[in-house]
Specification:
With 174 residues, the protein is an alpha/beta fold. The chain contains six helices and five strands. It has a five-stranded parallel sheet, sandwiched between helices. It binds 4'-phosphopantetheine (PNS). 4'-phosphopantetheine binds next to strand 1 and helix 4. The site of 4'-phosphopantetheine has 9 residues, from strand 1 and helix 4.
């Protein structure tokens, strides 16, 4: 089937999915899997410039994402420094994918999309609505619950559960 105007849908289109992923949770992974259904490839960009307040180092955040997405073909995980639009250009992507959970995300995301459009008009931001079961999830909530000993099993991939447990053990040992 061809789209209007006769052009074929471009399965080879690469999308970038940027974020802090501190740590990655199942809501993020849902967006990755769904984006991969639409785009020919998804490059997950782990922003390094959040490191100061981050619980996990860039190396750890990348490793957890790589472990969690190892089974999804066409997904790559890289870290990046600087602007998301420049990262997108560097990997040959014309799409930035973002997940939207609620109205509070929308205002901030709208500003970022507008600024990114101004910086690089050829790059489009595409929003995907978070699946309802993950609507309340955030990395901040995951960190907080885990730090106070609550269970986040079922909300994060096994690689994250292990590293959260290690991190918390090492903090208590100090
Ligand atoms: O997971 P987060 O913390 O919501 O991700 C935010 C992120 C990393 C996507 C955003 O802060 C970002 O794009 N940072 C890179 C620097 C940049 O491009 N800033 C201008 C955005 S308009």
């Amino acid at each position: 089937m061809t789209s209007r105007g006769g052009a074929r849908p471009r399965r080879e289109t690469v999308a970038v999915y940027p974020g802090s992923f501190d740590p990655v949770h199942n809501g993020h992974l849902d967006i990755v899997a769904r984006a991969r259904e639409i785009f020919g490839g998804v490059v997950i960009g782990v922003a390094t410039n959040v490191e100061k307040q981050a619980m996990f180092s860039t190396i750890d955040r990348v490793a957890m994402l790589r472990a969690a997405t190892a089974g999804i073909a066409g997904v790559e995980v890289r870290d990046f420094d600087g602007l998301t639009v420049e990262f997108a250009r560097a990997v040959g992507a014309r799409i930035i994918v973002k997940g939207l959970r609620a109205v509070m995300d929308f205002e901030f995301e709208l500003k970022m999309a507008a600024m990114n459009k101004r910086l690089r008009p050829e790059i489009e931001t595409v929003f995907m609505m978070t699946s309802p079961e993950f609507g309340y999830l955030s990395s901040t909530l995951i960190r907080e619950v885990a730090q106070f000993g609550g269970s986040v099993a079922g909300l994060v991939p096994p690689s994250v559960l292990r590293r959260l447990a290690q991190k918390i053990r090492s903090r208590h040992a100090r």
